[in-house]
Every structure is written in C-alpha cells, then in structure tokens.
Specification:
about 85% helix, 8 helices, mainly alpha
Length: about 200
C-alpha cells in the first residue's frame, strides 16, 4: 500500500492531507456529540423532578449537565413560571442555537469529500499529460513508454475516491448521531413543556 502511494506521484500527498483534514473534523464532531449525548430518559427524570420537587430543583439538575437536551430543558424550565407560551418561545430560540452547535464544522467534512476526488482526477490528467510527453520524447507509443504516466493517473484517481468514500461513511455516521439527537431533543421538549403546563395548572 505504501509503495502504491509513493508510485502515485505528487498528487497523492494533497489527497492524504485532505483525508487527514476531514477525519480530524469528524473526530471533533464525534467528541462533541458523544460528550453531550443524552437519551429520552434524562428528560423523563427532569419531568419527574418538576412534579416531585418543583421547577427550581429541575433547573439545577439541567444547569449541572451539559448537552443539547439539558440546555433545551433548562431554557423551558427557566421560563416555566411565566407560562407555557413563554417556555415554548424560549425553547424555539434555544433550539436554533443547539442545532447550529450540532452541525458546526460539517461543511468542512463535505468540502473534504468534494475536493479529494477532484485532486485525484487532476492527478489523472497530469499523468496522461506525462504519458503523452513521454511518447513525444521517445517518438514511440509502446506500452513501456506510457505505462508510468498511466499508472500515476490510475493511482491518484483510486486514492482520491477511496479518501472520499472513507469521509462519506464517517459523515453519514455523524449525521446519524445528529438526527437521533434531534429526535430526542424534540421529544424531550414536548415532555417538559407538557409537565410545566400540568404543574402550572396544579398551582393555580
């Protein structure tokens, strides 16, 4: 594999840099998402806290926990005393921030996926140019003369596509986690808003 990389010529190095660049952003996204990952059970626990101990106790639990779900729950509970409508508005404002946080740096991964094959195709064109230059210099079109340039062309294309495939798979993995977290966020806020509404009616 190393020898194939070296045989691919100079265009293999920018493709490798792009692959490392994309993987670094994938790693950053996975760390960010996993460190703040919460399931629906967290919202259920907060809802039970609202019922049993009141809004202040639930607010403290949310404040002590990081992640999009606790942040949305915190936004709703912080405005809980002002009514459900105020809590819903707070959730809507906070949701936009949390969505932007979840999808941060995803454009760089998409850019890496798009650029890697382009460098591979550029290497292909360059390899074919070298092949034709070799033919011109040797005044011969025998396979031995053009084999080097064609080899460079094929290797750079293959490596560019492999890099894009790896990054595409990792991007889909990140998007899968984000989609699941968004669903959890939506279900959690519905539960918390419903519990706030019931609590306010009870206190009237």
């Amino acid at each position: 594999m190393v020898q194939l990389f070296l045989d691919g010529g100079g265009f293999m190095y920018p493709i490798l840099v792009i692959l490392i660049f994309g993987i670094s952003f994938v790693g950053e996204r996975l760390y960010h998402l996993i460190s703040g990952l919460h399931n629906y059970q967290f919202a259920e626990n907060i809802a039970d806290t609202i019922t049993e101990q009141g809004l202040p106790a639930a607010l403290e639990k949310c404040e002590a926990t990081n992640g999009p779900v606790p942040n949305l729950c915190y936004a709703a509970i912080a405005k809980g005393d002002s009514g459900v409508e105020a809590a819903e508005k707070a959730v809507e404002q906070s949701a936009g921030i949390e969505m932007a946080s979840l999808e941060k740096n995803m454009t760089w991964i998409s850019l890496s996926i798009a650029i890697a094959p382009m460098f591979g195709f550029l290497g292909t064109v360059w390899g074919m140019i070298e092949a034709f230059n070799d033919i011109k210099a040797a005044n011969d079109i025998s396979p031995a003369v053009v084999a080097g340039g064609i080899s460079v062309a094929l290797l750079t294309t293959a490596f560019g596509l492999v890099a894009a495939l790896i990054l595409q798979f990792l991007q889909n993995l990140v998007m899968y986690i984000i989609d699941n977290q968004i669903v959890t966020m939506q279900k959690s806020t519905v539960l918390i808003l419903d519990r706030i509404s019931k609590t306010n009616r009870t206190n009237i």
